[in-house]
Structure formats: structure tokens, C-alpha cells
Specification:
alpha+beta; five-stranded antiparallel β-sheet; single chain; 5 strands
Length: about 140
Amino acid sequence: MAQEQISADWYIESAADVSDVLKEAGLPEPLRRSIWKSLAYFLERDGDPVTPDLRSLRLFLSFVADHKNWRPPGLGLNKEGVIEAVWEASTVFRWSLEFLPVGEVRWTYIEKKEEEGVTHSTGRNRPQDIPVPERMRQAALSA
């Protein structure tokens, strides 16, 4: 019984922290709700819950706030709580960004091009210095 109480308390505290950081980000409600649903999955995982690193979460939310017109990304969370966001179109492109607590983003971009085949690039930059793929710019313009 004590184990269940500790788990419940941990969940409540972690969820409250994540919720507070999300509210502070000032995102539009539909975007905030989408991100919350993704993060809640990791907080609720039976037997193996993971709490987002709040520095990673804030960095991610700041990046998303600068690109509110993009569709919400798929989200992942590693054991250390580092947020990974992925935008992709199946068999066309995949752009993944890992929001490191040190204030940098490790990114990978893969695209299938008819004339060149599969192209791949990767890097590690401050969020404002990440090269935004043309496909993301096009998607934002059509959104």
C-alpha cells in the first residue's frame, strides 16, 4: 500500500510541475492540450513513469512557441526526461529534435528526394540557429 501512495504522490507532483510549465509557455489551448496528452502518457506509464526534465521541456516549449503555425510534433521522452520532437511525412521526410537541458538542440533531418535519393543531415545548435528544412517552411505556409 505504501508503494502505491508513493507512486500516486510522485505522479501528482510531476504532473503539477509539467502542467505549470505548460501554462507558463502561453501556447494556444489546442496546441497546449496536444502536448499535455503526449507528456501525460510518459507520466502515467505503469511501472516505468518518466518525468520530463523541466529545462528540456522549457526549451522545447520555447521552440514550439516560436513556430505556433506548425502542426504539433510527435513527442518522445528518454529515461533522463529529455524531450524529443519529431515532424515527419511517411516516406518523404523526418525531422527530429532532441531538446537538451544545456540549452542546445541535437537534430537530424532525413529526406527522400527523387533526384538524389535519401539525404541526411545532423547537427547540434542553439534553437535559434537550427536550420529549418524547406519542407517545414512549406508546411507552415500551407497550414
